[in-house]
């Protein structure tokens, strides 16, 4: 039975999704389909234009992402899966919300600071507005829950603030959403540098397992995973054992079991054998996703068709909020 919870999440358009994304975010999106009324998943092409990018490549990456999500188990008939740029209500609400957004606060956002420093040519106003567009993404659907990683905490706080200020000024029209942080995936570490989170931008290439890696590549990355020099070597979680802890937690997620079960199963195993076992199970787990991806990605018309249908459903929901917001703000013709 479906609840009354409306779920929204935004996903960056990239084909380079890694195991941390998969365990943390994507499996949670799939589970959300049964809980969400509806679950709404948006591929954020407009956000991708806030830093240097290539237009033709952006189109490709949106399709890559769509195919990965469907391959992972999102069913376009059971959720709302669409491309942000297809639904103009997001940008319109972004503008309207900018009137209740504090400039100083945008200027202090950590991601804005970090990304500004990383830009070689232009620090665009779009980069500053990024969090306002993100607020509009969620608020336009009056979503209750936003499943995203810890790194989005500041964006979620701003979003809640914007909704509260809007409601105080114009009347209670917007839902103030809650952040929902996935428990496991947030912890997936780089296999080479387990002190760091797995990441396609900040991690090591050998320590980052991509969802679309071939099985032999997955296995190789696990075989080379960094462990520790405990004597005798033991498969258990603990201080100074970031590498082994990571492997235990990855395998527990893949099996849908508890880390303690993994420790028990491998109590007498050697590190080398344990790494092979984890690598083989992860490779076998990802292989069908990769195969489905290849088949889906080859049919671009079908992907575009799925996105267009999703955009239609999204627009129907978003336009109701826009009508209320415009009316409350005195924008456009009376009566909306
Ligand atoms: N900023 C998010 C990220 O980098 C993506 C995103 C855009 C998002 N709009 C959103 C996430 C709305 C949650 C809700 O991952």
How would you portray this structure in words?
This protein has 336 residues and is mainly alpha-helical. It has two domains: 7-186 and 300-329, HUPs (Rossmann fold, 3-Layer(aba) Sandwich); 215-294, Tyrosyl-Transfer RNA Synthetase, CATH 1.10.240. The protein contains 13 helices and five strands. The protein has helices spanning 19-35, 45-48, 55-72, 89-98, 103-108, 110-118, 125-139, 153-170, 215-223, 242-255, 259-265, 271-297, 300-329, and strands at residues 7-11, 39-43, 80-83, 145-147, 178-180. It has a three-stranded parallel beta sheet, sandwiched between helices. Strands 4-5 form a two-stranded parallel sheet. Helix 8 links the parallel strand 4 and strand 5 (178-180). Helix 7 (125-139) packs across helix 8 (153-170). The longest helix is centred in the C-terminal third of the chain and has 30 residues, at 300-329. It starts with 6 loop residues before the first strand and ends in a 7-residue tail after the last helix. The mean pLDDT is 95. The chain binds tryptophan. Residues 8-10, 12, 44, 47, 134, 137-138, 146, 148, 152, 155 line the site of tryptophan. Tryptophan is lined by residues 8-10, 12, 44, 47, 134, 137-138, 146, 148, 152, 155.
Key traits:
binds tryptophan, 13 helices, 336 residues, mainly alpha, 2 domains, single chain, Tyrosyl-Transfer RNA Synthetase, two-stranded parallel ribbon, Rossmann fold
- Segments where pLDDT lies below 50 for 5+ residues? none
Total individual domains: 2
- Give the CA-CA distance, first to last residue: 35 Å
Q: What would the average pLDDT be, to the nearest integer?
A: 95
């Amino acid at each position: 039975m479906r609840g009354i919870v409306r779920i929204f999440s935004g996903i960056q358009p990239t084909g380079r999704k890694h195991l941390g994304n998969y365990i943390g975010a994507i499996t949670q999106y799939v589970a959300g389909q049964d809980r969400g009324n509806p679950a709404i998943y948006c591929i954020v092409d407009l956000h991708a234009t806030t830093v240097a990018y290539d237009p033709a490549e952006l189109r490709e990456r949106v399709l890559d992402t769509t195919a990965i999500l469907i391959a992972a188990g999102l069913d376009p008939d059971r959720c709302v899966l669409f491309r942000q740029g297809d639904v103009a209500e997001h940008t319109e609400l972004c503008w309207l919300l900018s009137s209740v957004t504090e400039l100083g606060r945008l200027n202090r956002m950590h991601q804005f600071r970090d990304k500004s420093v990383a830009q070689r040519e232009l620090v665009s106003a779009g980069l500053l507005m990024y969090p306002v567009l993100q607020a509009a993404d969620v608020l336009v659907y009056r979503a209750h829950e936003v499943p995203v990683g810890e790194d989005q905490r500041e964006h979620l706080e701003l979003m809640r603030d914007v909704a509260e200020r809007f409601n105080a000024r114009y009347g209670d029209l917007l839902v103030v959403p809650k952040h929902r942080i996935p428990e496991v995936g947030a912890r997936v570490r780089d296999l080479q540098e387990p002190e760091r989170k797995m990441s396609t931008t900040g991690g090591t290439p050998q320590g980052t397992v991509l969802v679309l890696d071939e099985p032999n590549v997955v296995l190789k990355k696990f075989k080379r995973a960094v462990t520790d020099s405990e004597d005798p070597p033991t498969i258990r979680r603990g201080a100074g054992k970031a590498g082994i802890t990571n492997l235990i937690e990855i395998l527990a997620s893949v099996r849908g079991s508890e880390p303690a079960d993994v420790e028990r199963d491998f109590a007498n195993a050697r590190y080398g054998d344990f790494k092979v076992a984890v690598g083989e199970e992860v490779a076998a787990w990802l292989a069908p996703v990769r195969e489905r991806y290849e088949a889906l990605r080859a049919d671009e018309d079908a992907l575009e068709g799925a996105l267009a249908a999703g955009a239609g459903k999204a627009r129907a929901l978003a336009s109701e909020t826009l009508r209320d917001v415009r009316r409350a703000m005195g924008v456009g013709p009376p009566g909306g």
